[in-house]
Amino acid sequence: MTLTPLVYWAQRHEEIYLRVELTDAQNIDVHAQDNVLQFRAQGHGAKGQNEYEFSLEFLSPVKPEVSYKSTQRQVNITVRKQQRGWWERLTVQERKPVFLAPDFDRWLDESDAEMEIREKEEKRNRLRASKHKEEGFVSLKTGFLFVYNLVQFLGFSWIFVNMTVRLFIFGQDSLYDTFHTISDVMFFCQILAAVEVLNAAFGVVRTGVVPTLIQVVGRNFILFIIFGSLEEMHHRPVVFFVFYLWSAIEIFRYPFYMLGCFNTEWKTLTWLRYTVWIPLYPLGVLAEAVAVIQSIPIFYETKLFSIPLPKAIGTSISFSYVLHVYLVLMFLGLFINFRHLYKQRKKRFRTKKRKAN
């Protein structure tokens, strides 16, 4: 009676990995032809010390060169696919053999495997690039990104520290003069933030254009249209909350990017950059929504930015109606950006966990 060992499998786009549960295997004979793999060896398996063998008819052809490594506990086999691709199953038969099971220690779905390939390729590219760089050499692109992030970090740090100090010194009174004390620096930082959209659009940094555009345009709309154009909004406490939440996020984001310019990382800062936005970003959008709601009656009364209609109709559309539509778009933008940021966080920490293992 033929004895078969337990076999665990996993795949990548170019390779098949098999782990044969056979202790102290000897006289190993493993070979492949077309899409069939034959294995035979002596060792201690599920049925004790015996000779074990199995045959697998793969879904597609494989290369005849098969590599294996025997350890005290198992035999690890690597089979290369004839054509690169992702198999929906391992064998031609839809019903897998009883001795075959997934190797969850090495198992990845197709998207994770593609990410692994990209990470390996990026690592190879970084190593290749580092060999051709002179020590201390900083590219123009790296220098530009570092200076930009440094300027933004200093600007938002000044805003955050200034507002915090004023809050402790003047208490509740500081909520009412935030616009007059902070707005100049905030105008500068938010105008400069338009560079981030250009960086994404021209490939200077690898990030999505749409999420960046939503954030930059959304903030500048609140800053210039809602706060800047209405003097009645200058003394509202909501200005304080909007500015404070914006700066609280950015004082972690920009130094993270600064270190990234030189492939350097501080784990605490990385965790903060990918975590503090979870409560602060929705709160910031909520504060922006409150500001829009408070400005609607002001726009309605003053008719500022009203859209004129033809004389035959003899009226105009109040800008307040536009703000009602904008409120809906704000929360749509919140969903898009929150999803984008969550994917970034998941990818970052999943990669870190995998490297640690």
Automatic annotation (TrEMBL):
Q: Which GO terms describe its molecular function?
A: very-long-chain (3R)-3-hydroxyacyl-CoA dehydratase activity
**One example of a Gene Ontology biological process annotation:** very long-chain fatty acid biosynthetic process
Which compartments does it reside in?
Endoplasmic reticulum membrane
- Reaction(s) this enzyme catalyzes, per UniProt: a very-long-chain (3R)-3-hydroxyacyl-CoA = a very-long-chain (2E)-enoyl-CoA + H2O; (3R)-hydroxyhexadecanoyl-CoA = (2E)-hexadecenoyl-CoA + H2O
Q: Name one Pfam family in it.
A: PTPLA
Q: Where is the CS domain?
A: 2-91
Enzyme Commission number:
4.2.1.134
Q: In which pathway does it act?
A: Lipid metabolism; fatty acid biosynthesis
Keywords in alphabetical order:
Coiled coil, Endoplasmic reticulum, Fatty acid biosynthesis, Fatty acid metabolism, Lipid biosynthesis, Lipid metabolism, Lyase, Membrane, Transmembrane, Transmembrane helix
How does this protein lie in the membrane?
Answer: Multi-pass membrane protein
Transmembrane parts of this sequence: 143-165, 185-205, 212-230, 236-256, 276-300, 320-342
Q: Name one GO cellular component term.
A: endoplasmic reticulum membrane
SUPFAM superfamilies noted in UniProt:
HSP20-like chaperones
Q: Which InterPro entries match?
A: CS_dom, HSP20-like_chaperone, Tyr_Pase-like_PTPLA
Q: What does this protein do?
A: Catalyzes the third of the four reactions of the long-chain fatty acids elongation cycle. This endoplasmic reticulum-bound enzymatic process, allows the addition of two carbons to the chain of long- and very long-chain fatty acids/VLCFAs per cycle. This enzyme catalyzes the dehydration of the 3-hydroxyacyl-CoA intermediate into trans-2,3-enoyl-CoA, within each cycle of fatty acid elongation. Thereby, it participates in the production of VLCFAs of different chain lengths that are involved in multiple biological processes as precursors of membrane lipids and lipid mediators. Catalyzes the third of the four reactions of the long-chain fatty acids elongation cycle. This endoplasmic reticulum-bound enzymatic process, allows the addition of two carbons to the chain of long- and very long-chain fatty acids/VLCFAs per cycle. This enzyme catalyzes the dehydration of the 3-hydroxyacyl-CoA intermediate into trans-2,3-enoyl-CoA, within each cycle of fatty acid elongation. Thereby, it participates to the production of VLCFAs of different chain lengths that are involved in multiple biological processes as precursors of membrane lipids and lipid mediators.
Q: Which family does it belong to?
A: Belongs to the very long-chain fatty acids dehydratase HACD family.
Protein name, UniProt field: Very-long-chain (3R)-3-hydroxyacyl-CoA dehydratase
Print the organism lineage.
Answer: Eukaryota, Metazoa, Chordata, Craniata, Vertebrata
